Amino acid sequence: MATPKRADATFELENNRPVYTLGVASQLADIPSHSIRQYIDMGLIIPFKLESKRHLFSQNDINRLKLIQGLIHDKGLNFAGVRTMMAMVPCWALRKCSERDKLSCNAYAENFQPCWMASQKGSLCKNMDCRECEVYHALDLDAGIKSVLYTLV
Ligand code: SF4
């Protein structure tokens, strides 16, 4: 029998598996496909990309889509507001960047777009898949971005 920790890990793995097409994700999240495309273009979500360039979404992606939709429709944020909020996650602290890394990374000084949209990333991030990164997932937490900040100060 799986230990609780292993069961959690298996559950998380399942939730991260990209299995839903755009159409299915749209139905599950109850968000029109064109809005999801906008979220992708704005860098609010990074779906899994197939070689054919088609996108696939996981359960975590569906949750994230709903969260973004909630921020826009219930909390009154616009795209720029959501992006600015995402930019506030201190990626350098979570990723433990060196001073040198920070200076070579545009995300460090950027206030209005998340680090995964930086035109030039530091050496720690250059070859990372941002979709798998804890910084990208900071927004997914039920407790919100502040819960990430609590662990850092
Ligand atoms: S790997 Fe990507 S998401 Fe993670 S800190 Fe670097 S740029 Fe940001």
Summarize this entry quickly:
The protein has 153 residues and is an all-alpha fold. The protein has helices at 4-16, 22-29, 33-41, 59-73, 79-87, 91-94, 99-103, 134-137, 145-152, and strands spanning 48-49, 55-56.
Any overview of this molecule?
The chain contains nine helices and two strands, in the order H-H-H-E-E-H-H-H-H-H-H. It is mainly α. It folds into two domains: 1-77, Multidrug-efflux Transporter Regulator, Chain: A, Domain 2 (Orthogonal Bundle), CATH 1.10.1660; 78-153, no CATH class. A two-stranded antiparallel sheet has the order 1-2. The N and C termini lie far apart (38 Å). It has helices spanning 4-16, 22-29, 33-41, 59-73, 79-87, 91-94, 99-103, 134-137, 145-152, and strands spanning 48-49, 55-56. The protein binds iron/sulfur cluster.
